[in-house]
Amino acid sequence: MNWFKYAAPQRFHPLAGRAVPWFGVAAVLLAVAGLAIALLVAPTDFQQGDAYRIIFIHVPAAWMSMVLYMAMAFWAAMGLVFNARLASMLALALAPTGALMTFLALWTGALWGKPTWGTWWVWDARLTSELILLFLYIGFMSLHAAIDDERRADRAAAVLALVGAVNVPIIYFSVQWWNTLHQGSSVKLGGSSMAAIMLVGMLLMTLAFWMYSFAVVLARARCIILERERHAAWAQGALA
Amino acid sequence: MSQALFALFQRDLRIALRRRADTGSALVFFVIVVSLFPLGVGPQFELLRRIAPGVLWVAALLASMLSMPRLFADDHADGTLEQLLLSPTPLALLVLAKTAAHWLASGALLALISPLLALQFDLPARDAGVLCLSLLLGTPLLSLLGAVGSALTVGLRGAGVLLSLLVLPLCVPVLIFGVGAVEASSAGLGVAAQFSLLGAMLVLGLFGAPLAAAAALRIAMD
């Protein structure tokens, strides 16, 4: 199979168009199943009550926020190194979804923190690094938006994404160390001690988030392709 | 090659010396911001002593970002930057020379004046010394990260604010360990760990940041 066949925006556009509905339907089905388990089947936690059910959204969102940053940095690097236009467009399409996931993780974290920890926000290592991750996403998007020439914007933003990717582990560990200097970690989720049914619900929700991200990113990439290739005959044909 | 680098370094230092108002304004900004904090939080020395490391470090961070857009903007405006890109000397080394000159005219001055400001916060002499050293070790890293941001935003509208937006999140580790060193010192603990980490990050920055900034300059000028 020739992997490079679909590196041309012209060929990728219809392929993505065919894939989006499948990912979308999969996302809805998985989310319905996951939410049914999360809200109806899974038992109430004896310590945290029903508030713990937020983790079914919170944990997948937090995972996605990190995965999507890595994916964005990867495609940005591909675009920079191989001068592949489609890779840069994918990186650009990933950024808003990544920022959304980061925001969701922070927001649901706050909603979970209020009943459980008694406060909306603590300067926990994970919360802080998630907040900085949000700033990195915003920086990537603002830099891209500030440069008028698309190709220059792609490549400049790619350099920023790579510098950020090198920095993410440093930031994570420094924040963790900073936090332990002040106080011990407040509350930890009992990861392995989680009941099997909760784990199933969480995995279903994670898969749903993956499928949602695929669908949304591909749909956004299609828009970016059409916007950039608007002068090409095939793009005008696709729009007509 | 070293001649070209030294010439560039000297030239940038000379420009900084001749434009004293520009060089001085970041310093004055630093002093003013730091002096505003006691006015904002009240003059109790117990409180001031506690927040002094953080306040001084954050103010130094902001002050060093203030002069950062100028690093490449003037050279971009008068065409010098294109000549630098065409020169046979590796661009990353030229960036390093420019950043070193810029640091001497900004970060180093901030670090040297910081013990004086620490007095305003009633910081003991030992802690003030640690603060000065931590700034001396940390501000070059801020300049290096700022150089990457400055190269990415060269020639853009509103480059100054954008630069801060891009670079400040990346400065978090420097801030954490810089402040951590002073806090460890005031708690009577050793500061070797924080200084080692700052030094390690500086080495990493010295290697990586000029390369990233050079790549960004090539993108900007193409």
**Residue share in helix of chain A:** over 70%
CATH level 1 class label of chain A: Mainly Alpha
Q: Give me the secondary-structure category of chain B.
A: mainly alpha
Biggest interface goes to: A-B, 26 and 27 residues
N/C terminus separation of chain A: 31 Å
Number of helices of chain B: 11
CATH topology of chain A: Four Helix Bundle (Hemerythrin (Met), subunit A)
Shape of chain B: elongated
Record field, number of beta strands of chain A: 0
Broad shape of chain A: globular
Helix content of chain B: over 70%
Distance between the termini of chain B: 24 Å
Low-confidence stretches of chain A: 181-188
Please, how many helices of chain A?
A: 7
Report on the biggest sheet of chain A: none
Number of structural domains of chain A: 1
Order of helices and strands of chain A: HHHHHHH
DSSP summary, beta strand count of chain B: 0
Runs of chain B with pLDDT <50, length 5+? none
Question: Can you walk through the features of this model?
Answer:
The complex is a heterodimer of chains A (240) and B (222). Chain A is an all-alpha fold and 240 residues long. Chain A contains 7 helices and no strands. Chain A has one domain: Up-down Bundle (Four Helix Bundle (Hemerythrin (Met), subunit A)), CATH 1.20.120. Chain A starts with 8 loop residues before the first helix and ends with a helix. Chain B has one domain (2-221). In chain B, α2 packs antiparallel against α3, α6 (91-105) packs across α11 and α8 (125-152) runs antiparallel to α10 (172-186). The A-B interface holds A 132, 135-136, 138-139, 142-143, 146-147, 152, 155-156, 159-160, 162-164, 166-167, 170-171, 174-175, 177-178, 181 and B 148, 152-153, 156-158, 162, 165-166, 168-170, 172-173, 176-177, 180, 183, 197, 201, 208, 212, 215-216, 219-220, 222.
